[in-house]
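Comment thread on ticket #2218

A.B. wrote:
> Attaching the input chain for the structure job we discussed in standup.
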Amino acid sequence: MKIFSHRNSLLESFIHYSRSILKSVIASIKGINMYVFMEKFKESSFVSLISVFAAFNVICDSLMSLPLPFSGVWYSWVFIVTPISGILLGPYAGFLSSFIGVMVGHSMVFRGSEEFLFTFGAPIGAMISALLFRGRLREVLVYYLVLLGAFFATPVAWQLPLWGMWDVFFAFGCLLMVIVAMQKWKNIWNTRANTNLLYILALCTFIGLEADVLFRIFILVPCQAYQSIYRWDAFTLQSIWGMGAVETPIKAALSILITTIIGPPIIMAIRKMGLLLVKD
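C.D. wrote:
> Ran it. Output below, let me know if you need it in another format.
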């Protein structure tokens, strides 16, 4: 009998201990802040989104573009994905996603060690597209002014035809027009309005891509990579300068077309998940 009473006491102690644990678990579950849980979910999903776009950047950067040997701009198809990466992910995550993509892509399809320097323009372009989409035009304007100022302050630039980078000047003009228009019409840059979204995406894509081109020009001319890396003289630089004036706008137009087609549905879908543009 003593044995049975001892077993009963152990069983009662176990049941009592189990009930106390269960009550603690239930109390903890009830005390969970669902906002914190959703923020953790958004954070993990956002990291996954960065990884997905980094993979897209790797794929596009591994595919060689039109074989034009002297353009020096976008030997791959990365120009298709960098603007939308910045627009969707934001300036910093977009920069990181594009940077990982082009570094891995350039390592997989090696096209010269100097290209690792020039390809920094791709993540910078993604960042500029992101800043512009979020209405941070001042940073974009400063970027253009500084790099254009450095270009015109370089003596060899005075020997180059200006039409060779007409698309960069056109993008800068579009940026100035947007700034002036926003001073007069505050809601003209409302990315939540479907009627505004298409032209905003087009402008962000174009100005971001030309910011990429401007960075490469900055490395080539003001930083004098044409001499230190390629061993070109001024005459050789003049000879190849105008080739990008045809190729680059065509690729920019293709990127604009693709972004304006796939951009709106992707933006709407991700916004419904609560993962996009918290501060826009």
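A.B. wrote:
> Thanks. Noting for the ticket: Residues 34-272 form one domain.
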